Structures are given as structure tokens and as C-alpha cells.
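User: quick one, sequence for these C-alpha cells?
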């Protein structure tokens, strides 16, 4: 399903078609096939001009879903501040045309109440996120991780409360394994606040969700928002000539460490790039298209350090069909 944008920004070069919209689980929510994630490049220490250009390019091309978390950016929370400023100024009046998500689950502040899955932490964190972004509510709030130290009943009860109190319209979970996902879905269903979506990592070099999670999502009728479809840049060819200083692996604050950029992964990425060329795609486009091949995936969350990365992601959303031969070759390379 496609929708026109009608957004006011005009470019001299042709724009790709807006991404198609996909139904999210059993809900009435439609999400663009690609979502802009603000994990990196939107913090207080990043270039604010570039951050604005990236976000506005996404909006111009029809990307209506923006994914954040309480701890995104440096210092933690600054990505939400950056987003809030752009929303208030350049995108004033557009809130109702957007789908905005944020999360909590990892350490945000010191002390016993700034981490995990407790009701205290999740509700407090949601309130802080709303203040940073200047919002009355978010469309979607996630439990960012399963917390073994907190009863799952408490965590899911907190998510239910966020909806009933008007702070969020929908709730979801992130990085839960199949069994945890099924339990969480059951608890939320009993509370009357269904689990809208699950956000797991997934890419060509790590296909863990195919070992049970996607089956659970289908059975429970839960949507799926993939994060890290480019394996933190490995599947964008960023590290073929070494580790750039401005890359995620090159940053001392990055989640991807230099030791994680192995020759084995790079060799697989090179072979995948050769296959991508036969489809007329860049490696990054190919990797995103592949994650969207499965209908259970509602959207793929991509990061961008330059505006043209947005164009690649949007173009990838139009090429989600793979031949049996292509899928077999992918399995051979990544297996």
C-alpha cells in the first residue's frame, strides 16, 4: 500500500517512490516499510545541520515512522531533544502525520531506579522522554529488553498503564527471545493492551530470529520492526578499506567494536555485494530489501549518517522480491 507525501521540500533530482506501507500485526496500524532510527548521529555532539537534513530528507520521501529510545545520543537522551527541536520548528504542525516510538530498559541514570523493567523505571523514563521531545504522548513505547530481575507481570503491567494513562497509544517489546515474547504477549492480552510489535536485531550475518521468533510473531499476530539491517555498517561496505574514524566501529562510544569487524564477515559482505550488483542494487539496498522479504516484517529500521543513505533505504523498500536462486545463493554465502 502506497501513499503520496505532498511534503513541501523540493529537490532538483528525481525522488524515489515513497515506501509502501505495511500492516502491523493484527492491528489497524500501517507502518512505512522503512523507518528512520535515531540511535546514532542525532546526539548533542553530532552535527545538528546534518541531523536536520537526514530527518527532513526522510520526511520528504514519505518515511513517517521515527524510532528513538531514552538512551539514544550522547549524552543519553539528546537524540530525543534533537528530534523534539526539529519537530517543533521545521516540522511544526505535522505531528499527527507521524508515528513516533521510544523505549526504556537499559541504564539511563544512576541508582536503583534508572535501569531494567520495573514500573518505576518505565513510567518515569516515559515521562522524561515526553518532556525531551515536547510531546503529550508517543505512538509506541517499548520495553527495550527483557529484565530477569523484574517479574514479567510487572513490566507488562507498566506498559499497560502507559497506554491507559494516555502516555502511549501502543506498546511493544524489543530483543525478547521466543519464549519471553509468547509470555509477554499473553500477559498483555489478558490486560487488554495487545502487544503491537517486537523489535529484534536481524541482518544477513545474524539470522537468529528465524530460529523460532518469527514463528511466534506469526502465531501471536505481532508486528516486527527489524533493527540493524546493515550490521552496523558492515553490510553497507563501510569497512572494506579499513575502519573509518567517523564510523560506528571507529568511535570509542560505538556499540560495534573493531574486533567485531572480522575478515570472515567482510568476505561474506563482499560476496553479497557481488550478488547485489546482479540486481542493480548497492549492498546496503540489497541488505534492507532482504530483511523485508518476509511479510511478518512490518518495517526495517535504518540508520543514516548522510541524507543519501535515506534514499538508498527508500529505494530498497521497492525491491523485496527474491528469486529462489538468489535466496539459495544467499544461504550458501551466509550459512
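Assistant:
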Amino acid at each position: 500500500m502506497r501513499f503520496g507525501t505532498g511534503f513541501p521540500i523540493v529537490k532538483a533530482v528525481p525522488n524515489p517512490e515513497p515506501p509502501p506501507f505495511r500492516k502491523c500485526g493484527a492491528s489497524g496500524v500501517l507502518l512505512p516499510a522503512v523507518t528512520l532510527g535515531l540511535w546514532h548521529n542525532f546526539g548533542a555532539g553530532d552535527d545538528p545541520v546534518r541531523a536536520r537534513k537526514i530527518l527532513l530528507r526522510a520526511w520528504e520521501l514519505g518515511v513517517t515512522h521515527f524510532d528513538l529510545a531514552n538512551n539514544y545520543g550522547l549524552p543519553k537522551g539528546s537524540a530525543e531533544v534533537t528530534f523534539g527541536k526539529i519537530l517543533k520548528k521545521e516540522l511544526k504542525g505535522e505531528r499527527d502525520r507521524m508515528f513516533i516510538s521510544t523505549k526504556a530498559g537499559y541504564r539511563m541514570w544512576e541508582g536503583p531506579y534508572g535501569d531494567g523493567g520495573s514500573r518505576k523505571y518505565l513510567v518515569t523514563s516515559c515521562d522524561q522522554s515526553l518532556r525531551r521531545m515536547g510531546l503529550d504522548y508517543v505512538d509506541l513505547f517499548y520495553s527495550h529488553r527483557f529484565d530477569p530481575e523484574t517479574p514479567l507481570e510487572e513490566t507488562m503491567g507498566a506498559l499497560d498503564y502507559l497506554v491507559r494513562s494516555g502516555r502511549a497509544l501502543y506498546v511493544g517489546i524489543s530483543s525478547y527471545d521466543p519464549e519471553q515474547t509468547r509470555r509477554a504477549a499473553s500477559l498483555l492480552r489478558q490486560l487488554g493492551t495487545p502487544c503491537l510489535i517486537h523489535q529484534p536485531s536481524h541482518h544477513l550475518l545474524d539470522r537468529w530470529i528465524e530460529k523460532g521468533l518469527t514463528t511466534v510473531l506469526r502465531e501471536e499476530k505481532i508486528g516486527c520492526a527489524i533493527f540493524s539491517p546493515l550490521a552496523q555498517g558492515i553490510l553497507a561496505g563501510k569497512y572494506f578499506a579499513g575502519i573509518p574514524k567517523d564510523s560506528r566501529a571507529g568511535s570509542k562510544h560505538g556499540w560495534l567494536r573493531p574486533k567485531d569487524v572480522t575478515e570472515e564477515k567482510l568476505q561474506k559482505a563482499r560476496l553479497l555485494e557481488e550478488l547485489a550488483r546482479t540486481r542493480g542494487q548497492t549492498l546496503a539496498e540489497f541488505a534492507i530489501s532482504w530483511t523485508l522479504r518476509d511479510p511478518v516484517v512490518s518495517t526495517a529500521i535504518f540508520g543514516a549518517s548522510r541524507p543519501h543513505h535515506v534514499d538508498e533505504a527508500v529505494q530498497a523498500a521497492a525491491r523485496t522480491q527474491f528469486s529462489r536462486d538468489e535466496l539459495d545463493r544467499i544461504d550458501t554465502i551466509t550459512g
